[in-house]
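[job 4417] fold queue: 2 targets
>>> target A
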Amino acid sequence: MNRPPLASELNLCLCHSCGMACDMTDEPHECERCGAPLHRRKTNSLARTWAYMLAALAFYVPANLLPVMNTKMLGSGDDSTIMSGVLEFWAHGAWDIALIIFIASIAVPGIKFVALTLLLVTVQRDSLWARKERSKLYRFVELIGYWSMLDVLVVALVAALVKFQALGDIEPRPGILFFGLVVVFTMLSAMSFDPRLIWDRERDKERDTEPQNPQDEEPMDEVPSH
């Protein structure tokens, strides 16, 4: 059964900004519709994805160990980390808020680290395992990436609203800066990964198994015996 042609075989390139299939006959550098840069493949995809993910992993440690905000009530202040804030909300009965902060600030970055590592390792090993599922996993990583900013937005909003001088005050602490860097670098890591690498080995295998000459598939006529 003949497979459908690839975009590269039709000399087409998909614009990652507007989704237009651009004709690459004259090797254009920009999309004719939106002006975004065109590239057949993401440059140094694996190296950049590893670099961004390892940088995010390095910032993930101080983001969870350092305090993210300081709460002052009637003159007495207390620093709180992400996890201590989750436990405090849970202890006061606000389990829904605690669950949201835990998922957005701890679970989501952890899932992204595991998923990106899985994608990178399987691609580098030329694995044919669960290609369709890995493509869906990549789209899932892209989808949940933006929700990691929820904790940063909560701290920024609370710090801006709670300003009662001597009665009460909330100030951000260095931990929230590191957490913001974690979110940015994990998003850059996901954006740098080229999901087409998942399917390259299968395409190469299909090319290798295709007959070089169409006549090879036709049965040879029997030689008449004398």
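>>> target B
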Amino acid sequence: MMVDQPSGAEAPRRFLFLDASARTDGNSVRLARLAAESSLPPGAEQHWLRLEDHPLPPFRDLRHTGDGRYPEPVGHERALLDATLAATDLVFVAPVYWYSLPTSAKLYLDHWSAWLRLPGVDFRARMGGRTLWGVTALAATEEDKAEPLVGTLRLTAEYMAMRWGGALIGSGNRPGEVLDDERAVIAAKSFFAG
């Protein structure tokens, strides 16, 4: 069942946190949890999905083959589509891997290409006006090394007519090190409040 974005100011915001890390409870997740605990709006709901636990098949571009129709999503793809449409706020919790998104996050976005073309879903129109956020950690201390990842998310928001909530960037290599990044910890405590 697909649920639309709530209308009216009193409806609670629903944050979908998409954990794209190849490591369980990695630095990006720890930073995102700190931000969620500290700065989600009052009454906001949170739903956390680990993309590795919802594996998607390889994306096949069918736009110019046969009738160009994509099959109706089933299984994990259906669960991810429904969870995406139920969210008012979509948070990519994704460490920087080779300067960009982890494979699971990129594959999830690739499937948006199919969802845009599913009859009756109106994916782009329904995603418009929602907010897209990014939370990431990288081993480097220079935030500009995360720019390809951040740029991908920002441009995705722009293309989908979503609001860009911003990116929370922390530095940490070994698990838990991101919590030693004082600047990131301070930023996390007000990240979703703005």
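[job 4417] complete. Note on B: The two ends are 31 Å apart (CA to CA).
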